[in-house]
Amino acid sequence: MQRSILITLCSLGLILTTRGATVWSPYNGGGGSGGSVFPFVPTPDVAPSVRYQQVYGAADFNRVGGPFLITQIRFAGGSGSSAIDANLPNVRIELSTTTRKPDGLSTVFAENVGADNLVVYAGPLHFYDRGIQRFDIRIPLQTPFRYDPQAGDLLMDVRNFQTAPNIFGGPGFMAGPTVLGDTVSRQYSRDVNSPTAAVVDTLGLETMFDVTIVPEPNTWAMLMMGVVILIVGTQPRVRGWLAGFRRQKH
After folding, report:
1. N or C: which end of the chain has fewer CB within 10 A?
2. Do 33 and 174 touch, CB atoms closer than 8 A?
3. Which pLDDT score is estimated for 94?
4. Total Cβ atoms within 10 A of residue 194
5. Distance (Å, rounded) from C-alpha 155 to C-alpha 53?
6. What pLDDT is stored for residue 217 in this prediction?
7. How much is the pLDDT for 237?
8. If DSSP codes are grouped into helix, strand and coil, which group holds residue 106?
9. Cβ distance 125 to 139 under 8 Å?
10. Alpha-carbon span 14 to 236, nearest angstrom
């Protein structure tokens, strides 16, 4: 009985102390227009493979607080893009907290990667636009990434080991504004094994992150203390002791 009560209370505490949110970067689209096929939908004749890095300014994430777990990454089809539907054989996506700023990436890929670098997706990827809402190209992460905007900016590092044609055959591309001084920028190479970027510019894919805001450790400690007090308080001997203690105080 006590065990079931404890499990129920802990589950309720988890529900009450976590909440979902979304973060859009660059915020309000950065006020610009444009788009890119990189890193997910260049045709094999454009790039047989791709190494791509994009940095997102922490300011966009501070709007919802933190720290939190990033659980899904979403992109939007560009204005005038054909329907996007590509089956990519092997993609690896890593996230890390970086000290590099938008428009301040090093052309050496390794110099941008943070110490908490984590592989959040690896393997085949069906990259397609569901066409129901704007940010409907979705990549659910296999491993959520814990990100704290107070610790630095966010780096997305993508390796597309083998590009594939869009099955619709048209020029499919993702939305990405080109605005100098906004909260995103990127760089890439058309060779996944290259240690350095061949193209560096201020464009950045418009990205929506699904996040789960998690409680700080002290919140969990207070929750667990309350659970223990409640469970202990149900014991007859302890209840009697507490009642006697209260009478002595009066």
Report:
1. C
2. no
3. 99
4. 14
5. 7
6. 55
7. 58
8. coil
9. yes
10. 28
Structure-block tokens of residue 193: 């094994």
Cβ contact 57:152 at 8 Å: no
- CA dist 100 and 103 (Å) reads 9
Domain ranges of the chain: 1-18+215-250, 20-214
Residue 104 Cα distances to 87, 99, 113, angstroms: 32, 10, 13
Question: What is the mean pLDDT, run by run of 10 residues, along the chain of 250 residues?
Answer: 47 52 83 84 97 98 93 96 96 98 98 98 98 96 98 98 93 93 96 98 97 68 44 53 56
Q: Is the peptide bond before 89 cis (omega within 30 degrees of 0)?
A: no
54 Cβ contact partners less than 8 Å away, ≥ 6 residues apart: 155, 156, 158, 184, 185, 186, 204, 205, 207
Q: Which residue is listed with tokens 């993702």?
A: 174
DSSP H stretches of helix in the chain: 2-17, 58-61, 217-233, 236-249
